[in-house]
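Exam prep: given the inputs below (a chain plus coenzyme A), describe the expected output before reading on.
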Amino acid sequence: MAFSAAETANPIHGPVRWSWHAHAHGTPTDPIAKAWLAAALAVPADALNLQREPRGRPRLGPPQQAYDCSWSHSGDGLLIALGHRVELGVDCERMRPRPRALELARRYFTAPEQDWLAAFAPGEARDRAFLRLWCAKEAVLKAHGHGLSFGLEKLRFADTGAALTLVECAPGLGLATDWSLHEFAPAPDYVAALAWRDPPPR
Ligand SMILES: CC(C)(COP(=O)(O)OP(=O)(O)OC[C@H]1O[C@@H](n2cnc3c(N)ncnc32)[C@H](O)[C@@H]1OP(=O)(O)O)[C@@H](O)C(=O)NCCC(=O)NCCS
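Solution:
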């Protein structure tokens, strides 16, 4: 493992560490992300080789290519994640009433996921379940790099009791069992997910 608790005060989960930052909606995220990533990697900010893929995915280049990063903003917060020897995606959403949760699920989620969501009582329980699933899917699709245009219905999560687990996905995402998911609350009233897998050969 590349990170030890002694190295940082930021929370660590397996090969990934994350950090939560204040962020005003509509303002650039790059300066905040770059500053934290450089500090986490112990390099000067101007030595951080942060690039963008054509679809917008951030990617660290040499000499930091053994690391991967992802970030997500919602409400007034920004969640940044850094992983070692993994392909990584993160998503966060602020909790707020989602009266159209079932309607959106019918449009974007698989049939078993729609049934799972419909079993929750309307209101906060269903809103939270919807956001958990949304974050899980988006985190995988951000790690993959195509983003939402890949299709939220092309991957299916199941609730194993304590957590959501990827159980089925389109071949472009590799094997469902390759993916790890960590769900957490980076701040009160936020839902978030980190998704990662071993980097596929390039
Ligand atoms: C990327 C995407 C998932 C972001 O969703 P969102 O909920 O609106 O935003 P989030 O706050 O969670 O994440 C935004 C961050 O994701 C990252 N990102 C952007 N595109 C990405 C992609 N294709 N894959 C992974 N991460 C991406 C960026 O760091 C972005 O932050 P920034 O723009 O402030 O730098 C969504 O906008 C999407 O899928 N877009 C389509 C990408 C695409 O096909 N673009 C074609 C352009 S040619």
